[in-house]
């Protein structure tokens, strides 16, 4: 990749990016409240499940499709991947969180980059013709910036895990060193998830983590919540 693409990938992976992912836990809060996650080992196992069963077979497939569509200037294909990802995401909170963070990233990118495809995509999202999921916006942004597709997938996995580790530090007695140990240990799982997504089309999006979906539904009705999802 070019230096500019590398720097863009670092910017998009930075927790400093103002897209609101700090406010979501993607069901982790309910796992903690139900005493299903009590220590770092439990947390690592759950995050590995997320990567293998949800992020890899759904988000990364959509990201790859959006990345290719952006490089080819195919707005219809971009929106098709976007709608498909929404259709296979069962938990309402997950759909809403993905759309909210995606909307913020898309707004940020259109402010920073004068690109006709992004502008047209933003118009479709504003008209409710496409949901604007975070993974799809990230795929489009990285594709247009010249970030390698595999690098973009790893970026997505890294951002997802670090976001949930940040949430875990507010929900559990998890220190920074333990968080870094988990992040390091999950490197192989991230690579596995990226490789699993490589040969899938948008018709092959098959996220399957029933307990995650059930607890996400419970979280929607919780009386007290620290996180939006």
From TrEMBL:
UniProt keyword terms in alphabetical order: Chaperone, Nickel insertion
One Pfam family, short name: UreF
Molecular-function GO terms, alphabetical: nickel cation binding
InterPro entries: UreF (IPR002639), UreF_sf (IPR038277)
PANTHER family cross-referenced by the UniProt entry: UREASE ACCESSORY PROTEIN F
Name of the protein described by the UniProt record: Urease accessory protein UreF
Organism: Haloarcula salina
């Amino acid at each position: 990749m070019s230096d500019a693409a590398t720097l863009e990938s670092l910017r998009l992976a930075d927790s400093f990016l103002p897209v609101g992912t700090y406010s979501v836990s993607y069901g982790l809060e309910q796992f903690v409240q139900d005493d299903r996650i009590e220590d770092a080992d439990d947390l690592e196992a759950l995050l590995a499940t997320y990567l293998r069963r949800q992020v890899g077979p759904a988000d990364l497939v959509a990201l790859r499709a959006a990345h290719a569509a952006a490089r080819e200037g195919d707005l219809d294909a971009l929106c098709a991947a976007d709608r498909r990802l929404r259709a296979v995401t069962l938990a309402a909170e997950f759909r809403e969180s993905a759309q909210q963070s995606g909307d913020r990233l898309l707004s940020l990118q259109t402010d920073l980059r004068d690109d006709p495809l992004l502008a047209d995509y933003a118009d479709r999202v504003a008209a409710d013709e496409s949901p604007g999921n975070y993974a799809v916006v990230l795929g489009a942004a990285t594709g247009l910036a010249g970030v390698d597709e595999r690098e973009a997938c790893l970026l997505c996995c890294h951002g997802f895990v670090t976001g949930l580790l940040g949430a875990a530090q507010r929900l559990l007695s998890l220190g920074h060193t333990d968080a870094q140990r988990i992040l390091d240990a999950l490197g192989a799982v991230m690579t596995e998830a990226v490789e699993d997504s490589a040969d899938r089309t948008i018709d092959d999006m098959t996220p399957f983590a029933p307990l995650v979906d059930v607890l996400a539904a419970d979280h929607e009705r919780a009386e007290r919540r620290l996180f939006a999802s």
